[in-house]
Write a structure and sequence with these properties.
The structure holds two protein chains of two kinds. By secondary structure, chain A is mainly alpha-helical. Chain A has two domains: 232 residues, no CATH class; 93 residues, abc type-2 transporter like domain (abc type-2 transporter like fold, 3-Layer(aba) Sandwich). Helices cover 63% and strands 6% of the residues of chain A. Chain A has a four-stranded mixed β-sheet, sandwiched between helices. In chain A, strand 1, helix 3 and strand 2 form a beta-alpha-beta unit. Classes of the chains: A mainly alpha, B alpha/beta. The complex binds adenosine-5'-triphosphate and magnesium ion.
């Protein structure tokens, strides 16, 4: 045990003094977190509408309508002429434009609404506006309301894009640490360091364990940094308990470390190991839904999506970390990841060559 | 300790049925040119490669079967130094020390290998010779009963080589057994109690350096560095000369009666037949033995 701790400390020093390792495994995920955080924070959600209002004749009625529109939280009013507002709509600065005509006398009044149909969320705007106008109408006619909605929000805070991305970035970091971190064992073999240590009383399997221990340590630093940056800088809400998060992170790291060792055990040289890893990690990153929801991918790719482990780690971390509803459920994810762990571990043991 | 050891790499026989025994407390040297099979032998003895045939016992263990137990009791320096690149000299020695039950103190080994002023240098920044010395240090720190050194002084400057010889001598004085390989005749001659000369995977001579020399040469060697090849034949009939060895431009005469041979040489020079510039007389060495046994010089 003492030998092992000495070895771990030596491995740690040897790795952390390598600037490239520091950059790729610590700094890179942090940069990614900031970059994606800034790009995506505040856009898209929560739902919000910029409504252009054109008042063609000031009347008590139009004033009442404007003030009830103003009372709606998610609507920001912009008053202007029809031309100006339509221009703004064309440029995407307005979600919709409503034209309040000069109200005079009795009878029904036509109220034109133009909206930007390119935005998915805008489709609910006409319905909303209709409902608001109905409310005003009932008030004027003193009609009692027949149905009264008792609205109770279940989700207190909205899920933001950054909420979705943070577990994805963490999953990506763990994957890269697992895959590319495994290169070191090939390096140690090629530089004959494994061979050299093989002539000492040190059991060589301890070298692998020590490599893994150091990588789990780096994984926890990665996770901590990403989560803290998310929490303090980008207001990502955290759902799971610490031990759940830690368990998911370590399990995910272990799965990818094992897959990494499987992949490099197919290669004889550092170059070919690196090639294999690149070929695997690049598509995995984009087909796993860690950066955007899987529904956006064409259906031909769905079978691929459903076997790659990163899909499940992303899903698991999204659920555990920020409480985004699971696509697959934690037990399915754990099962698939566990299967990958066992298969890759056996393959690594089977194909790895010590020299 | 080693009987009929054979190792084949596909169709190349790297070690061809060699047998020898190393005595406890001696410095045993294996001397041979590139590709002779020295490294192959060392790596089999320490359990890093398996033999194709033969019986081996190191400290009573079969290295292939009881690697773990054997490694507790030996120190090994492989031919190519391979250490964690970003550990410092001190940390590397400390790490290796931690593997063994009763290692030498790090400071003492630093002293031995002359790297005390480089303790805090990361190993990838060391020069070739310094790295080589550190690798030897990692073998020595084991405090093992046998220290295996595969070309411990290759790449060292003459002063560092002398220092290394002194340390190896010190280890012997402490009762260690040392197995080393080398290309250097003078190293084998100076350092080793017994030497096995190996060529093409076979041991062609084995004994103390003095034995080997006296067994093959009762004569002294006269070296003539600048003799034209056409005079070679005529030199054979010099009085007292028993053998002639040509190696490039250099001709070595092995003479039982040096004085008579030299007298005749001087006369021939006076007659203008040949030039004696650069002439030297020395005792025969292992180099001469190797030359005689293989017909080649060691460094070609
Ligand atoms: N792994 C290997 N596969 C195939 N051939 C090998 C292997 N290792 C060594 N050989 C061959 O075996 C022969 C003996 O090699 P070895 O390394 O034992 O020589 P050596 O005496 O240590 O030489 P040097 O002085 O250059 O270190 C050489 O011809 C070499 O090419
Ligand atoms: Mg060698």
């Amino acid at each position: 045990m003492k030998i092992f701790l000495n070895l771990v400390s030596a491995t740690l020093k040897d790795m952390l003094r390598d600037k490239m390792i520091l950059f790729w495994f610590i700094l890179f995920p942090v940069i990614f977190m900031f970059l994606f955080g800034w790009i995506f924070s505040g856009t898209g959600s929560p739902i919000h509408f910029d409504l252009g209002v054109v008042v063609e004749g000031e009347t008590p009625l139009s004033a009442a309508l404007v003030s009830s529109l103003n009372a709606v939280d998610v609507i920001t009013l912009h008053q202007g002429t029809l031309d100006d507002e339509q221009d703004a709509l064309a440029e995407g600065d307005r979600s919709a434009v409503i034209v309040l005509p000069k109200f005079q006398g009795e009878g029904s009044v036509t109220i034109p609404v133009y909206y930007n149909a390119a935005e998915q969320t805008n489709h609910i705007l006409p319905l909303m506006l209709g409902e608001i106008l109905n409310g005003v109408e009932r008030m004027i006619l003193r009609q009692p309301q027949m149905f009264v909605l008792d609205v109770q929000p279940i989700q207190s805070e909205p899920i933001s894009d950054v909420d979705y991305l943070l577990p994805g970035i963490l999953a990506m970091a763990l994957m890269q640490l697992g895959l590319f971190g495994s290169m070191r064992l090939v390096y140690l073999r090629e530089k004959r360091i494994l061979r050299s240590l093989g002539a000492t009383p040190l059991p060589r399997i301890q070298i692998v364990f020590s490599e893994i221990a150091v990588r789990l340590l780096i994984a926890s630093v990665q996770a901590l940094l990403i989560i803290l940056i998310g929490y303090f800088v980008f207001d990502v809400r955290l759902a799971g308990s610490w031990w759940q998060i830690a368990a998911a992170v370590f399990f995910g790291a272990a799965v990818f470390v094992s897959i990494g060792y499987m992949l490099v055990s197919f290669a004889r040289t550092e170059e070919s190991a690196n090639g294999i890893l690149q070929i695997v990690q690049f598509p995995m990153m984009f087909l796993s839904g860690i950066f955007f929801p899987l529904e956006l991918l064409p259906s031909v790719l769905q079978p691929v999506v459903k076997v790659i482990p990163l899909t499940y780690l992303g899903d698991l971390l999204r659920g555990v970390l920020v409480g985004i509803p699971y696509n697959y459920g934690p037990s399915v994810s754990l099962l698939v990841l566990g299967a990958w762990l066992i298969v890759s571990f056996s393959a690594a043991v089977r194909f790895w060559r010590w020299d | 300790m080693v009987r009929q050891l054979t190792k084949k790499y596909r169709n190349l026989t790297a070690v061809n049925g060699i047998s020898f025994t190393i005595k406890q407390g001696e410095i045993f040297g294996m001397l041979g040119p590139n590709g002779a099979g020295k490294t192959t032998t060392v790596e089999i003895l320490v359990g890093l490669r398996s033999a194709d045939a033969g019986e081996i016992r190191v400290l009573g263990f079969d290295p292939a079967a009881h690697k773990e137990k054997l490694h507790q009791k030996i120190g090994v320096q492989l031919q190519m130094p391979a250490l964690f690149p970003r550990l410092t000299v001190g940390e590397s020695l400390k790490l290796h020390a931690s593997f063994y039950p009763a290692p030498f103190p790090v400071d003492q080994v630093l002293e031995w290998i002359g790297l005390a002023d480089r303790v805090k240098t990361q190993t990838y920044k060391l020069s070739g010779g310094q790295l080589q010395r550190l690798a030897v240090g990692t073998a020595m720190i084991s405090n093992g009963d046998i220290i295996f050194l595969d070309e411990p002084t290759t790449g060292l400057d003459p002063q560092a080589r002398r220092q290394m010889w002194a340390v190896i001598g010190q280890l012997k004085a402490m009762g260690k057994t040392i197995f080393l390989t080398t290309h250097y005749m003078e190293e084998a001659q100076y350092l080793c109690d017994r030497v096995a000369i190996i060529d093409h995977g076979s041991i062609i001579a084995l004994g103390t350096p003095e034995q080997l020399i006296s067994e093959h040469f009762a004569e002294k060697a006269i070296e003539l560095p600048q003799v034209l090849a056409e005079h070679k034949e005529s030199l054979l009939n010099l009085p007292g000369v028993t053998r002639i060895q040509a190696d490039g431009d250099k001709i070595t005469l092995y003479a039982a009666q040096v004085e008579a041979a030299i007298r005749e040489l001087i006369q021939r020079e006076a007659a203008g037949v040949l030039t004696l510039s650069g002439l030297s007389v020395r005792s025969a060495s292992l180099e001469d033995v190797f030359l005689k046994l293989t017909g080649r010089s060691m460094r070609q």
